[in-house]
Amino acid sequence: MRFKKFTSIAFLLLITAFVSFKVHAQPQAVGEPQILLKQDGVNFQAPVWSPDGNTLAVTADRYVGIWLANADGSDLRQLTVADAGYGFSWSNDSQSILTRVNTVENRRRNHAISIFHTDGSAPDQITDFRPTMEALPKWAQYGEKVVLIQNDKIEAFDSGMEIQEQFKNKPSLPFYVLKSNEIAKGKIPTNSTENISPFTDAQYLNLEVSPDGQKLAFEVYGGNLYVMNVDGSDLVDLGKANRPSWSPDSRYVVASVSEDDGYNITKGDLFAFSIDGNEKVNLTQQSGLIAQNPDWSPDGSRIAFDVPNEGAIYVINIQQ
Length: 320
Description:
The chain is mainly beta. The protein contains one helix and 26 strands. The protein has one helix at residues 2-23; strands spanning 28-37, 45-49, 55-59, 66-70, 77-80, 89-90, 96-105, 108-117, 124-125, 138-140, 145-150, 153-158, 175-179, 182-187, 192-195, 204-209, 215-220, 225-229, 236-239, 242-246, 252-260, 265-274, 280-282, 292-296, 302-307, 312-319.
């Protein structure tokens, strides 16, 4: 009986270890990247999955225009022809896209905040056009508000959208924005900010909040890719990489590691970095593609990315 009991315990420990290994296994690419979107005369770039994973939004050269396609690449359609493709973001319900629209009139550039809807209905213009808009707009209050940093101050606007049922009666969440040379934690309704920057006199780029709301990934211009807690603590240097995107479980960041000749990007691979900096997995090393601007799908099964010299959007299957 004692031996049988010992065997049962050993078996349970083995199963537990196996399950733990499976849960915490590194991301690995499955097969070769496949073309998802390509169209003659259009150089697609910067793919972003919708929160429900059913739609992919992309832009094109100089960030002019936004296109939508189903997750399998079907039903490609243009949402807008406007210069609106830089730094756009999806609403929580996957029905709308928030962006900064740019126009040029009499050689003068002007900007406004707009919300485009995937059903093709008329966009909502949130602000008037203005000659200066230093930052990108961000969703806040579960999509009820839109916030913008202007002259180092927060402007908050009603989005005109209803809060989804699952977010009603939840406490207000902070939001995170880039101000001039700092990362700021903002709050509504006070519209106050707190500087949580790890460095002084640095220019920060491509700030991304983890899905669990506990971590920030960002780049330093001319420097490296970093991860830290949302209070500014536990800074981890991930090395040279750009355009981070979080895994759904908030344990990894995928980013592009590139080489250039001073004029053009000559090599680019996608790497998955663990947030503690101890793991680094090349996901595209055998593809020969110049992989840029990755975005991890909400279910964790795929990563979409662009290939600048082809103008195509690719996807690669991922397992963990």
